[in-house]
Design brief:
- The protein has about 80 residues and is an alpha+beta fold.
- The chain has one domain: GMP Synthetase, Chain A, domain 3.
- It has helices at about 5-20, 50-65; strands spanning about 25-30, 35-40, 70-75.
- The chain has a three-stranded mixed β-sheet.
- The longest helix is centred in the N-terminal third of the chain and has 19 residues, at about 5-20.
- The chain is globular, with a radius of gyration of 11 Å.
- The two termini are about 20 Å apart.
- About 20% of the residues are buried.
- The mean pLDDT is about 95.
Length: about 80
């Protein structure tokens, strides 16, 4: 695992307990340049506040751990 991926996973480990409280989770599907692609699981799939969770929680936390990341997007596959 690269240093970049390790730091992204550390950031997600900070967020996961909050997602798990609501029956959800998130995984990294890939990194392309300065963009991280994530996939929601469980209750997070189709949740009304998933956009807020993505930008306000996941993206903000990843950027704090990995400042070279510009954005985080959710993917279906």
């Amino acid at each position: 695992m690269s240093d970049l991926n390790k730091r992204i996973e550390e950031a997600l480990d900070e967020i996961r307990p909050f997602l798990a409280n609501d029956g959800g989770d998130v995984s990294v599907e890939g990194v392309e340049g300065a963009t991280v692609k994530v996939k929601f699981h469980g209750a997070c799939v189709g949740c009304k506040v998933s956009d807020f969770t993505l930008k306000g929680g996941i993206e903000a936390t990843i950027k704090r751990y990995v400042p070279e990341i510009d954005r985080v997007i959710a993917v279906d596959a």
